[in-house]
Design brief:
There is one protein chain. The protein has 9 helices and 12 strands. The chain is an alpha/beta fold. Helix 2 runs parallel beside helix 7, helix 3 packs across helix 4 and helix 8 runs antiparallel to helix 9. The two termini are about 35 Å apart.
Length: about 260
Amino acid sequence: MTTPASNPTAAVLIIGNEILSGRTKDANLPHIAEKLGGIGVRLREARVVPDVEEEIIAALNALRSRYSYVFTTGGIGPTHDDITSACVAKAFGVALERNPEAVERLERHYGDPSKLNEARLRMANIPAGATLVDNPISAAPGFQIGNVFVMAGVPNIMQAMLDGILPRLQGGPALHARTVACELAEGRIAEDLGALQDRYPDLEIGSYPYFRNGFFGVSLVLRGTDEPRLEAATEELAGIVRRLGGTPNITVGAKG
């Protein structure tokens, strides 16, 4: 699937044993979700897989056939466990090649030829037919092949890569959000909230409880592309909160 629909969707595939072991805490998913939402691309799924070839390939093939775009993070560095590029090549049934443009970028970055050893040159191994994704921080590029975008796992590098990718994407209608926060328990508002969702099936309505300053409360987040509908539902929800004895605090955007 290379041509996104009018309401494009996306998935993120997070690759790395370090994420699954808990040694490294993923910081990329929230950033990707926010940036994609800003251009009207709905993030619908995220998976985390280990550095295991068959699992990476299976997950990638499942996701790329289901969503408009797939973004991978991790596994494109110079060490033996960085196998993402090779796995993507196998998933697409193409050769993994030493990309001349990627090599030139690395040569310019390192300057001294003695620093560009074979391990670092592995970062220039790119699936045949792929388009490079710029890495303005450490030069080693990511790449796009079909509807799959392969990025680094290091957060600041991933963010820089994503900034370069976003103009390539076909977005959809902007997704707007409103939050109604109140110091009511979820159980108190659950029935009315479900009825509100039934009246507005075109909106996403979520409930996110919190405990702050010694008080329980809930952030009720409404999302949708039709802003007048969103406003109407928000006003109804605020009225429900007041009827139940709460004080609604309405903000624009999704705040938990």
